[in-house]
Design a protein that fits this description.
The chain is α+β, with helices and mostly antiparallel strands. The chain has five helices and six strands. Strands 1, 2, 3, 4, 5 and 6 form a six-stranded mixed sheet that branches.
């Protein structure tokens, strides 16, 4: 004959702990945390990669412009490579000086020359469009804020990883034959693979979840 009774208090806690451990173990297996994942380490010095470095800008100002419905364009500060040279000529950012107005205009400055910039944008736009058509998932983001980290105390090789990811799209401007940047109607993301990697290696990592919608990246990064 069966009897009915209450479960011991400790049993519920043990079940909850087991479920949390199972969830964490599953997430750890699914998330790629190796340095080949560009969310864990991106080589921003590689001019051949599908990464366009933005200079002389502030994340909060860029976020405010894009989230306010503004469209931004790219400005080439550098010069294109000389004839018979395979090297991309990058401008020295330190020689550009500091102008407060450049942080609040609609231009995103890059170190590339005009031709190199357009080729880079075309390549990124095409590959992002192809990826979305094949998988239905947007893969194009504007990274705001980078963390420089080392794999251990003895390492002298710096790793760089984005912290906040703003979903964006590149739109061909029919009038200028260039690309404009617009924000997508999607949630801002944090870098989950990086958080998991640093938790695995160092035991902890700040929670980057925003307290409320509309926070700028600086506030976003200060949340605990």
């Amino acid at each position: 004959m069966a009897s009915v009774g209450t479960r011991p208090k400790g049993a519920d806690q043990e079940t909850r702990s087991a479920v949390i451990k199972l969830f964490d173990d599953t997430r750890r297996r699914l998330v790629e945390t190796g340095t080949r994942n560009r969310l864990v380490h991106v080589n921003r010095a590689n001019t051949r990669g599908n990464v366009l470095n933005i200079v002389n800008e502030r994340s909060d100002d860029v976020h405010a412009l894009l989230s306010g419905g503004k469209t931004m364009r790219f400005f080439a500060l550098g010069k294109d490579k000389v004839e018979d040279s395979r090297e991309v000529v990058l401008v020295d950012v330190m020689q550009q000086g500091s102008d407060e107005d450049r942080h609040t205009d609609s231009w995103l400055e890059t170190r590339l020359g005009p031709d190199a910039l357009q080729k880079k944008l075309l390549k990124i736009a095409r590959e992002a469009q192809t990826a979305e058509e094949e998988s239905g998932v947007n893969v194009l983001y504007l990274a705001m804020g980078f963390l420089t980290w080392y794999e251990d105390k003895a390492s002298s090789l710096p790793r760089e990883a984005p912290l906040v990811l703003l979903p964006v799209e590149l739109v061909r401007n029919a009038r200028t034959s260039t690309f404009d940047l617009r924000v997508r109607d999607e949630d801002v993301l944090t870098n989950l693979p990086l958080q998991q990697r640093l938790r695995d290696d160092f035991g902890s990592f700040p929670n980057l979840k925003p307290k409320k919608t509309g926070n700028h990246p600086t506030i976003f990064l200060k949340c605990n």
